[in-house]
Amino acid sequence: MTDLLKITNLHVSVEGKPILRGVNLEMKRGETHALMGPNGSGKSTLGLAIMGHPNYELTEGAIELNGQDLLAMSSDERARAGVFMAFQRPVAIPGVKMADFLRHATTNVRRPERKEGEELIPMREFRKELKAKMEHLRMDAEFARRYVNDGFSGGEMKRAEILQLAMLQPKFAILDETDSGLDADAVRLASESIAEIGRETMGLLIITHHDKLLVHNPPDFTHVMLGGRIVETGGVELAQELHSTGYDRIRKAYPEADAQNEAMLAKELQEA
Amino acid sequence: MATDLTQSTDHIGEINKYNFRTESQAIFKARKGLDAEIVNQISDMKDEPDWMRQFRLEALEIFDSKPTPKWGGNIALDFQDIYYYLKPTDHQGKTWDDVPQEIKDTFDKLGIPEAEKKYLAGVKAQFESEVVYGSLKQELGDQGVIFTDTDTALKEHPELVKEYFGTIIPSHDNKFAALNSAVWSGGSFIYVPPGVKIDFPLQAYFRINAENMGQFERTLIIVDEGAEVHYVEGCTAPMYTTESLHSAVVEVIVKRNARCRYTTIQNWANNIYNLVTKRAVAYRDATMEWVDGNLGSHLTMKYPAVYMLEPGARGEILSIAFSSRGQHQDAGAKLVHCAPDTTGQIISKSISKNGGRSSYRGLVRVEKGAVDSKSNVVCDALILDPESRSDTYPYIEILEQDVSVGHEASVSRIGEEQMFYLTSRGLTEQEASTMIVNGFIEPLVKELPMEYAVEMNRLIQLQMEGSVG
Question: Among A53, A108, A116, whose Cβ lies nearest the Cβ of B420?
Fold first, then answer.
């Protein structure tokens, strides 16, 4: 049976303010979905809600992985169940080496039943695998000894997220603007890597403003978010249309969602 | 998912992993309490020269005349309810085979044999008041290095001891220095002759194993011109219900172009008062480094100091404090610039958890004439829950114009975003918070010798799991 991630009528609030207002989405493993939409439409929120961020309060709806209630799981249980998110702005963890963090994470995800304090993947085996994957991503070996996201350039952060995707091999991965802040070469490298690592074996939910990432990962489905809802779903041609003509048609077609989107964005700007 | 770090650990009992005791067959135990009779008895038992007896008796008078400090932590001790001297065996073990089985059992539980195997002869261990086991690498002896307990040093190298003993920390320095001076026993004595560089750490383990038994080791290290040494002490103690006192004095002399590093990992049981005076003097172009980790004890008051006496001297202090429920770590550092072109650095990292309290208390003083001196202080505090507390008391006294003194302080709570990031990669909240804490102290841990770094990480992990009270 193909793995299935199913989101039904998802409503999510942050500090009492509704952000998502009834999202429905079904993804099968092996499919690539593009999630597009103007700023403030709730794309990142959807990703963070799937991953279980503590600030995102679920007020209604369900997320299921193969019929299992994902919402009943803690973030680490979700990761062990095979869900991953590459963050737009990953946080720095000073003093924690990439290699140590990755060895721990990889062990837990590969052995979901592992208890705290039990053995990690043998060092040699792990190092060998990490080295090969880093070479593939054209990352310097020194990278493994650096502290997690600490002092990383924008490009290094994104590559580190892709490295984690490669090591953890999730069933479903949400990639939140993994192409933003990168130059043209870096975007191409990121796109190719993601295609190689995940296109066949994972269900990918790609959040992006640009089309570069989608060139190597042409979406089977394109979803457009506006005002906290998915207002339209199409194929690869929808992504192409949005890239060439923008969101004007969508905004006009869904005036109520557009108004909510503007209101949310205004609030966000006000708070920032 | 709330990331409340206290919830997951609260239900686990506060069990100290070193909470065991070995039946002790003490050969001689002085009665409880402190007066001239006890001090004379200690001096008699040790068959000391008269100057040392007088030194002790004078120190006792100073101790009696000084009030208990009101600053720092709350010292609730009855000085008459403590044993000040206990002699466990009548001779020192020269090899492992000579050490009594009961004491070996205790060392086994502490994992000493591993360290012993690694560093073979480099290990000295103090059990109660006397050194019962110790040996020294033959080659060190051949190079003229003296590494022994201070009692033996007093017998075998009386001139050397007399020349330096009490010169860096005189008895009247503070009440607890006076107490130690009156009743001291054991501790390490190290002399490194000019130009001799010891390329492995010299180590000692200290241990209290008798109820109401204070431990008052006295350590004296002399690093002669151009010589180098790294001394490492680690402390563990079993848990008792009544208060115990550990009050050491450590004096270090680092002569011209010499280098000394002194590393401590203190993990006393949570009912122990750890009131220690540590001070070093550094001469021309000499370097003194204190690496000081405080994880255990009920109250620790300890501020390792470096007095930079001649141009080019360097002082560096790295301090880690971890306090959990029922603990107050009042730790810090002192740098005193007494000469031009001297350089000092203090890096302090403290962690407070489960209602624990950590304080950084530090002094940087630049004396008149110490032009072109540089000092930098960085202290970072990490607070794991709202019940815990962290304070910073930085004192800066500058009596000269052309100097550079910097101070940075930060206080942070474990970030929700950091927790989320790590848990979203499959780490449990417990594993994630332990990883963040280990990362926080990593800049200090990487300065430790390998086996101590491993031990330090393990202790932090136990502290985080709540299995160390």
Answer: A53
3-class state of residue B453 by DSSP: helix
3-state secondary structure of B150: helix
Q: Where are the beta strands (DSSP E) in A98-220?
A: 147-148, 172-176, 203-207
DSSP conformational letter for A73: S
Whether B446 has its CB under 8 Å from any CB of chain A: the answer is: no
CB-nearest to A79 from B417, B425, B438 is B425
**DSSP labels, B403-448:** -EEEEEEEEEEPPHHHHHHHHTTT--HHHHHHHHHHHHHHHHHTTS
Overall size of chain B counted in residues: 469
Kindly state the tokens that stand for B93: 């073990």
Asked if A76 and B416 come within 8 Å (Cβ–Cβ), the reply is: no
Rounded Cα–Cα distance for residues B455 and B28 (Å): 34
CB spacing of A76 vs B440 below 8 angstroms: no
Tokens 């000295």, residue located: B124
- Tell me how many degrees the CA angle A73-B354-B324 measures, rounded to the nearest 5: 130
For this complex, say whether ipTM is above 0.90: yes
Segment B263-304, tens digit of pLDDT = 988 878 788 899 999 999 999 999 999 999 898 889 999 999
Distance from CA of B203 to the nearest CA of A (A): 27
Return the amino acid letter for B244: S
| Per-position b or e across A77-101, b if 16+ CB within 10 A of its CB | bbbbbbbbbbbbebbbbbbbbbbbb
Cross-strand partners of B307: B281, B336
What is the pTM assigned to this prediction? 0.76
